UniProtKB/TrEMBL annotation:
Protein species of origin: Sulfitobacter sabulilitoris
Molecular function as annotated in GO: (3S)-3-hydroxyacyl-CoA dehydrogenase (NAD+) activity; 3-hydroxyisobutyrate dehydrogenase activity; NAD binding; NADP binding
Name of the featured protein: 3-hydroxyisobutyrate dehydrogenase
Gene designation: mmsB
UniProt keyword Oxidoreductase present: yes
Family in the record: Belongs to the HIBADH-related family.
């Protein structure tokens, strides 16, 4: 085809993009042609190396050709774009995992889809003209084509910065950030390619390498780390707004042009990927969740209209005030169920799941599993049900013949009782996953009984509250064997945004109670500080602006501020109706002190926090209120009331 030249020359499979007039933008047909060639060459003994390059001086590949995406999307045809992205992502994964060396020569602009073609191979060559970027937030998309993988692996908080700002990297920056491997003067590229064709040996490239100039990004790393270390887009913006320096001012100006929803999701994606379970498949799956919804529910079509079609550079973004609610981010990144990205042309394995405990947390968790395409039967002693979940007559009925049984129960005593009922009827090899928050001793006792019956046992309490359960953004803290965690992990990915394997049975509960002891203590301190600020005549918003961007930073302040009308939306803005009830915090603090007594740990702050929440819940009307309602409690009190 005229847009691409695919051939075998000597020992090299050669792919050359030949659309210099269009900055070598990637069309759907080009994508499929590259995939066909690489599939053919994978097992061809005559092809020792694959070389990808492009004609023209201005660009290796400036991105995907989005004209057809816009044309189909504005007519309500979202399937074309979804099919294009799915096929493109499959190619990106093949390049990343290719068993033979893939050498790319990246001159000029390398953006968006160009990163997916050129930056996943084994040998990524840059030179004097290279300009690499992921500018998708500027058109209502997110860094995709596996770009979030590299952003998550970049030094410090560089990933959040590059992903949200779309900053262009020269060759030195690209090597520093992990988007390229070697710097080579571009005059040497023809000779290097010729030698690859002659020998098929990537070792010959060493003789052409040169030292890269100093990286400007490396010099900015400390400032980037400082401002982009927050948990959300809001945290990043607050940090930048509190600094009147040139870097912060310039960065804020750049971010003001970007799509807020895209930036919020980009930050969230990088955070979800960063960690030991990172992989190209996980990155592409998360990216596809967004791009699948980008035209129908996101700002992609509006971004293209403003930038490419009408060229008015005045997009009408959702959340134009930059206050993107967490639920909006969660909605764009929820699992797609049967529509999920399929890199291997295999259908999702449908599991039979029993879910016991359909309360405020359990019901939405079970519903999300059903929406993802699993066969879920639920049971709750109160007779409640969940959307899409078949109702079982008993716990035993829900558990019988299930591949996985999940429990979400009030306490350890009830967990033990339910376990006695269901373990005998569960089939060998099934997984028993308890997501309740209970004492460590009960978690370990149930796991021991389950394992003795030939089951895989996981204790996996959650963090994130009712909103996280509904939005599929919970964090799971899991204890159990490697095999048990591996069985449960795909389900954690449906119900939440992160799962951490903390160790053997009971480790998940240990992590949860330690985490919530910190949360209880910091919320009390945050509420005390706001009450003190009131009495000192300090405006609450001013206090928030200072604390949220300085050493007083905490999740209780920045993400769950207890002061109404200050910071992101929280239960404080809804008359303290519970996202996490005060009595549940009291329960968790009680578990932490029970555990502390068992191992003779000195936890005076945790002990005091438990006493204060006990007083609040049992004597001061705090039951049924959010745990952040400690603020109005402190507002009314004086030192003599202590």
């Amino acid at each position: 085809m005229s847009d691409i030249d695919i051939r075998i020359t000597g020992r090299a499979g050669r792919i050359t993009l030949t659309r210099p007039h269009a900055l070598n933008a990637m069309t759907y047909a080009m994508c499929l042609a590259i995939e066909d060639a690489m599939d053919t060459w994978r097992d061809d003994p005559e092809v020792a190396v694959v070389v990808i390059d492009a004609e023209g001086d201005r660009a290796f590949c400036s991105g995907g050709d989005i004209a057809e995406l816009y044309a189909t999307g504005t007519k309500g045809d979202y399937d074309y774009g979804r099919r294009f992205w799915a096929d493109e992502y499959r190619l990106n994964a093949k390049i990343f995992d290719y068993p033979k060396p893939v050498v790319s020569f990246l001159q000029g602009f390398v953006m968006g889809g160009g990163v997916g073609i050129g930056c996943h191979g084994s040998h990524r060559i840059v030179g004097e003209s290279s300009q690499i970027a992921m500018p998708e937030c500027g058109i209502g998309l997110i860094p995709d084509v596996g770009g979030t993988l590299m952003l998550a692996l970049a030094p410090g908080r560089l990933g959040e910065y590059l992903g949200t700002t779309g900053t262009r990297m020269d060759g030195s920056d690209a090597i520093y950030a992990g988007f390229a491997d070697h710097y080579m003067p571009e005059l040497k590229w023809p000779d290097a390619k010729a030698l690859l064709e002659d020998t098929g040996d990537v070792g010959t490239l060493v003789g052409f390498h040169a030292d890269a100039p100093a990286s400007a990004l490396a010099a900015q790393q400390d400032q980037i780390n400082s401002h982009f270390a927050g948990e959300s887009l809001g945290d990043i913006l607050r940090s930048l707004r509190a600094d009147d320096g040139a870097f912060a001012t310039g960065t804020l100006k750049t971010l003001s042009r970007m799509c807020p929803l895209s930036m919020a999701c980009t930050v969230e994606l990088v955070h979800r990927l960063r960690g030991p379970s990172i992989s190209i498949a996980k990155a592409l799956d998360l990216e596809y969740r967004f791009t699948y919804r980008a035209m129908e529910h996101g700002d992609f079509l509006e971004g293209i209209r403003a930038a490419i079609i009408d060229k008015d550079r005045s997009p009408k973004w959702q959340y134009a005030d930059m206050n993107v609610p967490p639920v909006a981010t969660a909605r764009m990144l929820q699992p797609l169920g049967k529509a999920a990205l399929n890199l291997e042309d295999k259908q999702m394995t449908t599991l039979k799941i029993g879910f016991i405990g359909l309360g405020n947390m359990g019901a939405p968790m079970a519903a999300n599993l059903a929406k993802a395409g699993h066969d879920v039967a639920g049971y709750d002693s109160a007779g409640v049900s969940a959307e899409g979940v078949a109702q079982a007559a008993s716990a035993e009925e829900a558990a019988r013949d299930a591949d996985v049984v999940i429990t979400m129960l009030p306490n350890g005593q009830i967990l033990r009782s339910v376990a006695e009922q269901i373990i005998p009827v569960m089939k060998p090899g099934a997984a028993f996953v308890d997501c309740s928050t209970v004492d460590v001793e009960s978690a370990r006792a149930v796991a021991q009984d389950a394992e003795a019956a030939g089951l895989l046992a996981v204790d996996a309490p959650v963090s994130g509250g009712v909103g996280g359960a509904a939005g599929g953004t919970l964090t799971f803290m899991a204890g159990g064997s490697d095999a048990a965690f591996a069985k449960a992990e795909p389900l954690f990915d449906i119900m939440g945004q992160k799962a951490v394997h903390c160790g053997a049975s009971g480790a998940g509960q240990a992590a949860k109670i330690c985490n919530n002891m910190i949360l209880g203590v910091t919320m009390i301190a945050t509420c005390e500080a706001f009450a003190l600020a009131d009495k000192l005549g300090l405006d609450r918003q001013k206090m928030f602006d200072v604390v949220s961007t300085s050493s007083g930073y905490s999740w209780s302040m920045n993400a769950y501020c207890p002061a109404p009308g200050v910071g992101p939306q929280s239960p404080a803005d809804n008359d303290y109706k519970p996202g996490f009830a005060a009595e549940l915090m009291l329960k968790d603090l009680g578990l932490s002190q029970q555990a502390a007594e068992a191992v003779d740990a000195d936890t005076p702050m945790g002990q005091l926090a438990r006493a204060l929440y006990a007083q609040f819940v049992e004597q001061e009307g705090g039951k049924g209120m959010d745990f952040s309602a400690m603020l109005p409690r402190f507002e009314k009190r004086t030192r003599d009331d202590g």
